[in-house]
Inverse folding.
């Protein structure tokens, strides 16, 4: 039997349901510190000289050598060129992916055409296809075309993704009322004009999230650029790998490069963190 | 014919094509009809064109290349049927790389999902500054795989690595992380977990927030403790999300490449350790193709891995269907 006081007690705890205590905060703080630590360690080593690694107890505060080490990074690899290349590749890929994905998402969500459902199912299926395993013929094709080594070889294969189309379609379904499209049609707008002036403004939030994720994915891409680009024309990830394979004993140098390459993304992340979190959580619900 | 689905032709006050037409449709009019009819195909075309050219075709062509004795630079590759596959089946290094891949996969996705669920449960409480905590646990996602590989290779360095330093401080034996098979797998799995646990926790958190509060409150009034509520209310409702996380991490995890490549004590090497103790299948494929220039053999490796991923993903899909079928939702 449940007594009345017991029941009242439980009712009181209902109002307390989900209130965190100090232990919860402690665990979360430990988790965030653990998330931060490798970044901090990278900066720590980068700001000292490699001698610190031989110390029994390494110092836990940064030293003053970061800029000296960074300067050595610029001497050791074509860092600025790699940074520029990564910017060009990631920006181009982001722009085209967002554009083509929104366009296809618009068609799949709002326009009627024969084969629409079948084609969309096909796109969902391709989400699960590990296309990375096709890099050998892709490399052969790029060599035939004379593209190997050029930035177009890493841009073109990533112009649009199945995920992008899927994501934009899911968002457009709810975000764009049919009435708006009808009204634009009555005003004599062409389809492409409707896409540009009516659809794009309505799906801007989803497009922004897609842009962030596409940029990060492209920025971090490694296997395909490693296959198809050469050392003279690297992306930032290739430059880092080269730094490590050439100077691995000099970890101050290698980690200075790593820190430099991570700072831009980390800044973007801290500025847009709220949107990135929202993007992942929305994607989870819709997907 | 209407442009959009929901409005029936009768109720639509008429687009450009419904204006009272002259006997012969004007050029403008016809243009507008073509626009409505064919432009959707144009809009979805970029994806299908690109996927065909750089996704599907290379994947299928990989199967073709795998039937040839195809070396980079050689002019006339000879057809050898399934010889590459036969060789692969007798290749100890291939089996080792497959075992390594599966071992790293299990070591990473298992603990990762458990921790992600627990972390999501904490994040689901009424925290002060919820977004701050979420961004905090997601931070590792900002690091590139190459950066993670370099940093962890340093942390797990055999001589001067911080981890071994800590072990020594605690009176434990040093571990030669790269040299030993299991310990190298543990270290690589740790890299994977470090990057993805927070990300997956957010996905699980999103699913948790979709669970109606009343369910938990009702269970509480019925006298269920926190642990009981978690296992009997929350967890069953998370199943579809968890299986989704498992499937995506399967497809990604079985192709793992960057982490083992950068973890090597001999940087730049594709061996995955001196005795291939942490070489994964994709790393072996890369080595066969671009270090040994044996494109035919590498293609056979790629194709076997492709089929393996397909089989495992399909198995996961069937499990999902059963679980969600029984779950009543």
């Amino acid at each position: 039997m449940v007594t009345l006081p017991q029941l009242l007690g439980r009712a009181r705890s209902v109002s307390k349901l989900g209130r965190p205590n100090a232990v919860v905060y402690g665990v979360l703080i430990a988790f965030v510190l653990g998330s931060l630590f490798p970044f901090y360690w990278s900066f720590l080593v980068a700001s000292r000289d490699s001698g610190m690694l031989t110390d029994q107890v390494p110092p836990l505060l940064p030293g003053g050598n970061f800029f000296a080490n960074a300067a050595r990074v610029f001497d050791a690899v074509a860092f600025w060129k790699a940074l520029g290349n990564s910017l060009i590749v990631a920006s181009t890929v982001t722009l085209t992916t967002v554009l083509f994905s929104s366009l296809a998402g618009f068609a799949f969500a709002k326009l009627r055409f024969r084969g629409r459902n079948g084609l969309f199912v096909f796109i969902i299926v391709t989400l699960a296809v590990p296309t990375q395993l096709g890099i050998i013929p892709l490399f052969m094709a790029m060599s035939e075309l004379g593209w190997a080594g050029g930035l177009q070889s890493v841009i073109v294969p990533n112009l649009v993704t199945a995920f992008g189309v899927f994501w934009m379609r899911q968002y457009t379904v709810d975000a764009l009322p049919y009435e708006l499209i009808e009204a634009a049609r009555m005003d004599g707008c062409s389809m492409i004009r409707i896409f540009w002036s009516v659809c794009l403004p309505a799906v801007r939030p989803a497009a922004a999230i897609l842009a962030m994720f596409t940029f990060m994915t492209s920025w971090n891409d490694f296997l395909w650029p490693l296959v198809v680009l050469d050392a003279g024309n690297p992306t930032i990830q290739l430059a880092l790998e080269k730094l490590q394979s050439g100077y691995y004993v000099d970890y101050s140098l290698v980690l200075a490069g790593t820190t430099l390459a991570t700072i831009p993304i980390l800044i973007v992340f801290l500025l847009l963190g709220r949107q990135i979190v929202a993007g992942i959580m929305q994607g989870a619900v819709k997907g | 014919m209407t442009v959009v689905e929901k409005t029936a032709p009768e109720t639509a006050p008429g687009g450009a094509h419904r204006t009272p037409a002259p006997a012969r449709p004007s050029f403008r009019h016809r243009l507008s009809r073509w626009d409505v009819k064919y432009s959707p195909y144009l809009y979805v075309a970029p994806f299908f064109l690109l996927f065909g050219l750089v996704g599907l075709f290379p994947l299928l062509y990989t199967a073709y290349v795998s039937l040839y004795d195809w070396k980079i630079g050689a002019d006339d590759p000879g057809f050898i049927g399934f010889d590459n596959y036969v060789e692969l089946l007798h290749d100890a290094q291939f089996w080792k790389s497959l075992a390594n891949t599966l071992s790293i996969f299990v070591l990473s996705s298992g603990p990762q999902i458990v921790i992600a669920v627990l972390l999501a449960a904490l994040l689901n409480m009424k925290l002060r500054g919820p977004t701050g905590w979420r961004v905090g646990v997601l931070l590792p996602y900002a690091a590139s795989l190459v950066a993670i590989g370099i940093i962890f290779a340093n942390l797990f360095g055999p001589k001067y690595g911080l981890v071994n330093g800590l072990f020594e401080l605690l009176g434990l034996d040093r571990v030669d992380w790269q040299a030993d098979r299991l310990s190298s797998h543990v270290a690589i799995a740790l890299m994977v977990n470090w990057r993805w646990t927070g990300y997956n926790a957010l996905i699980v958190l999103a699913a948790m927030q979709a669970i109606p509060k009343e369910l938990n409150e009702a269970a509480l009034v019925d006298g269920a403790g926190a642990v009981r509520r978690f296992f009997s209310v929350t967890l069953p409702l998370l199943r579809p999300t968890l299986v989704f996380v498992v499937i995506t991490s399967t497809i990604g995890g079985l192709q793992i490449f960057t982490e083992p490549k950068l973890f090597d004590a001999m940087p730049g090497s594709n061996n995955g350790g001196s005795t291939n103790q942490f070489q994964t299948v994709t790393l072996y494929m890369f080595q066969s193709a671009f270090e040994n220039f044996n494109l035919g053999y590498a293609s056979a490796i790629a194709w076997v891995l492709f089929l393996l991923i397909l089989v495992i993903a399909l198995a996961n899909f069937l499990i999902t269907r059963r679980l969600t079928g029984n779950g009543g939702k």
Q: What stands out?
A: The first helix of chain B runs from residue 27 to 65. The first strand of chain B starts at residue 68 and ends at 69. DSSP finds twelve helices and two strands in chain B. The two ends of chain B are 37 Å apart (CA to CA).
